[in-house]
Recover the amino acids of this structure.
């Protein structure tokens, strides 16, 4: 007998028919003799609908009240899913985040799980109940409802799997696994059977929105085997696990991120500490900076360029524009017509030719590289947004042209 | 400074505009220097919509999961109302039933409040917050969500008022007070300024669905002054309080109840104990019997007639029909084309002519009385349903014809 955690996203429970589809998957797993803990998101567009309802009343509500409102979403989906499982004749109980022992920080809207005390879940499993837990939510030290932020249901599932030492954590979503590139854009993209935590992390960061980043980090930390799969196709998905358990793939995927804007501060005096001051100002406002490029100094000045998420662009400009004069720089410019394309692969650490192959693919497609950033298992380039889809296809063909479909 | 509890029903918060109307009432009370605790129901048709959603999945879900689903309704209305109050610039916090300390029995769907521990409410009041509490819900000893049953939000409000010794408990609804008769049916029905708990209880039982019965019982027990009023008209409503504080009115109202069916067991042998056996069988199945009439014995047999709610009719017949033979009775008949019309008034105790006046009004309208039941402050008659509205008007005119409009 195994303990299996299954997480179902909002599209998997969007209506009564899909709820019964999910109930069938869950009871199938239970019938095989497994203990099953299910984490469920709010149905379909519920969260967006609730946000719209709040906006109609107050365009800037407190995050505490917003969390109070939004946590009702999973409460409804969890109880409806439990009713479907009851209808199929299986013992089931639904639990809210606080009932399931999800203790979080107090950062309403983006709380972090501090502890999961799974006593109640275990008690229900001991009674042979299927346990449905509301994802995305918990309770803070004041006994107030909190949400983990978007994608937080993945994290809820992995947290339960970690604390209860589950044998497998299945993340059911609307795609049937992790692909070497976006299959809607690259027709010969291939589904991966397996990928390492680190590769998955880089892909998640890079905009392949299959798995929430925090959930992968937590799975890595507690060595929980994940499976990403579709609730609709019922095929095997992609397993995410420790790299040393698997043959390292040279390249596991190509990803595109269009949520990126470039900022350049021009003519910064070539003195130590100025770059630090710029980036500490941004991090002080919780603005993440990604690729950073500093030009070689010329005439005693240099240019500092970097990328931020587009939603942070205005904040970053507001912070830095008045600061240009203080720095003694000559100006600040920005560009939103850019995109980031990246390749990820645990095998590239030991294969130095990977970057050259990537750049060759872009050169052959006449695509100009504007910035480059590399990590041990990732190479990212900043290019014109208009070239992004062509770039993904060209790079994918370079590395995966020999892949049997 | 006073502590005022205000309860708003679903129609009072049905949409954004009404939510702001309610927010205005609440903040107006707060601005006058009062501590304000608000109890709110789910918006408009939310509860019915959730029930329909559940029915789509499982026509017979467990009551536990049903309560889990339904309690999301007030969670949403409470947080939205809090956001509206935030928008108006006032300090506010919304609390769920369990956060507000509502400990209930485990009877999902119709739980009873066992205790209210208002520590958190008091803490928020001490911080000068307006406190919004979800009505209709609590938590049982297993830490599971429970609902108090329909109309339970009134009870929630009175329970808070009782335990916190509030100075006033205002029940905002879609009518502007308690009337001497249904104002939609009797044009010259008059709004009462004040009514006693007992009169209100009789009226509530008799189908004047202004206030939930349990809430009036609780208000009486803890001597909490209630005010029934409309959130839309903003006029003074009807005060419900202890009779000895007020001049006793001869008649406070005329009420009609069409949820009534008559059952007669014919030819019951005239032996002691048979009536007891009949009614103990019914009470064993939780069927409430109202008016009871036993004919004078003749030829050693008698007829026993009584009324039950229509939803209980089939159950009552199922129980009693096989029992007719055991009793040695000759048959059982029933009639659903009846209605009960009642007058209520604390003053009738000392005015014996009231019943005669009521019967005279019915006689003048040529309405046949089929059964009669009286209590110290109530006289009820069972008549043909087709005559019910005429009967209410005739009786109302008899007692209130001299009332200045």
């Amino acid at each position: 007998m195994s303990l299996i955690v299954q997480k179902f996203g909002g599209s998997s429970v969007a209506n009564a028919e899909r709820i019964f589809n999910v109930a069938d998957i869950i009871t199938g797993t239970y019938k095989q003799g497994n203990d099953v803990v299910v984490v469920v998101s709010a149905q379909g567009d519920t969260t967006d609908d609730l946000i719209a309802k709040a906006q109609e009343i107050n365009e800037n509500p407190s995050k505490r009240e917003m969390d109070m409102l939004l946590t009702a979403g999973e409460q409804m989906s969890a109880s409806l899913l439990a009713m479907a499982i009851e209808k199929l004749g299986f013992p089931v109980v639904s639990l809210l985040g606080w009932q399931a022992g999800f203790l979080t920080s107090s950062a309403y809207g983006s709380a972090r799980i501090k502890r999961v005390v799974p006593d109640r879940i275990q008690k229900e499993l001991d009674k042979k109940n299927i346990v449905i837990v509301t994802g995305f939510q918990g309770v803070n030290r004041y006994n107030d409802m909190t949400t983990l932020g978007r994608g937080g249901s993945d994290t809820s599932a992995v947290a339960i799997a970690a604390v209860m030492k589950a044998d497998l954590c299945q993340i059911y979503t609307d795609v049937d696994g992790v692909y070497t590139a976006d299959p809607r854009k690259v027709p010969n993209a291939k589904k991966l059977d397996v990928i390492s935590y680190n590769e998955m992390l880089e892909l998640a960061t890079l905009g392949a929105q299959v798995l929430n980043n925090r959930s992968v980090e937590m799975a890595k930390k507690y060595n929980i085997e994940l499976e990403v799969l579709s609730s609709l196709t019922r095929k095997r998905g992609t397993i995410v696990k420790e790299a040393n358990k698997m043959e390292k793939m040279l390249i596991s995927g190509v990803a595109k991120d269009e949520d990126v804007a470039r900022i350049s501060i021009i003519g910064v005096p070539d003195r130590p500490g100025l770059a630090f001051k710029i980036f500490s100002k941004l991090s002080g406002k919780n603005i993440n900076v990604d690729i950073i490029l500093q030009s070689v100094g010329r005439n005693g000045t240099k240019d500092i360029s970097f990328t931020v998420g587009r939603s942070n662009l205005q904040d970053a400009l507001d912070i830095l524009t008045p600061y240009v004069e203080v720095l003694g720089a000559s100006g600040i410019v920005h560009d939103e017509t850019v995109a980031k394309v990246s390749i990820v692969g645990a095998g590239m650490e030991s294969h130095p030719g990977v970057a050259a192959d990537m750049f060759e693919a872009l050169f052959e497609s006449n695509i100009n590289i504007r910035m480059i950033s590399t990590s041990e298992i990732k190479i990212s380039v900043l290019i014109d947004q208009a070239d992004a889809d062509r770039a993904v296809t060209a790079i994918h063909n370079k590395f995966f042209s020999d892949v049997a479909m």
